[in-house]
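Lecture notes, continued. The same structure-token format from the folding unit now serves as the input rather than the output. Read the line below as a description of shape only.
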């Protein structure tokens, strides 16, 4: 059984005991006087933090949430049959996720529409927007080359979700990253620094990377410094044909 599940069970058990001792009431200013109090408080905070990581939890009806736990532990007749509970929860979380995804998409589109009007911002046919911070003097990479870059990624609220500035520069083939990067890097010359404004469809779309602070359908901003370009080897015709066939199969 996962640790989170154990913590949830322990928390709910302690909560039910507290409700039973207090006649079902909650005291908002309960003092921590013992090890049990400390454990109870820590478990409650842990479960709350776990719930906060799930999309839409801020819209929960906490009174109904507490009543559901209390009824289950005190053996009361449940207002929703156990067999239906998981499906109800999944349907609710799915609707919240879809709502959030649509909000992110609309927010990104509005931002990019306004951003496009700025004199310093240029756009490509695909919808990629970019700003030249500093031009380079070296070679421009093509899609088969490998590049070394420093970058900082933010959402449109300027919240940083990743930065190589805190570590070593990163290296990767130009055609092995999100489409906005693949296109944008080929506009740059070695030594250049650009800022990319990338619409959701050229970023991660609805499939945000796991373990990151990037949400589905978010427009993203990357400040990229192209440090080095290393020439790659263009696949021969047989390799390209195999790749096309693999894409069709996938």
């Amino acid at each position: 059984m996962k640790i989170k599940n154990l913590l949830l069970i322990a928390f709910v058990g302690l909560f039910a005991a507290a409700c039973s001792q207090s006649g079902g009431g909650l005291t908002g200013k309960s003092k921590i006087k013992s090890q049990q109090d400390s454990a109870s408080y820590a478990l409650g905070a842990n479960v709350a933090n776990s719930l906060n990581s799930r999309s839409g939890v801020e819209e929960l009806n906490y009174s109904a949430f507490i009543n559901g736990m209390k009824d289950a532990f005190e053996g009361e007749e449940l207002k929703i049959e156990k067999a239906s509970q998981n499906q109800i929860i999944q349907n609710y979380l799915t609707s919240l996720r879809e709502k959030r995804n649509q909000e992110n998409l609309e927010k990104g589109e509005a931002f990019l529409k306004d951003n496009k009007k700025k004199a310093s911002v240029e756009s490509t046919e695909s919808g990629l927007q970019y700003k030249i911070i500093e031009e380079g003097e070296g070679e421009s990479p093509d899609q088969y080359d490998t590049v070394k870059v420093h970058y900082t990624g933010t959402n449109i609220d300027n919240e940083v979700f990743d930065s190589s500035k805190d570590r070593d520069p990163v290296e990767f083939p130009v055609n092995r990253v999100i489409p906005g990067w693949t296109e944008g890097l080929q506009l740059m010359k070695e030594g250049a620094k650009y800022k990319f404004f990338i619409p959701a469809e050229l970023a991660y779309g609805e499939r945000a990377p796991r373990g990151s602070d990037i949400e589905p359908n978010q427009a993203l901003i990357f400040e990229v410094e192209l440090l080095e370009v290393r020439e790659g080897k263009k696949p021969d015709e047989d390799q390209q044909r195999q790749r096309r066939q693999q894409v069709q199969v996938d």
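Point for the exam: The longest helix spans residues 82-115.
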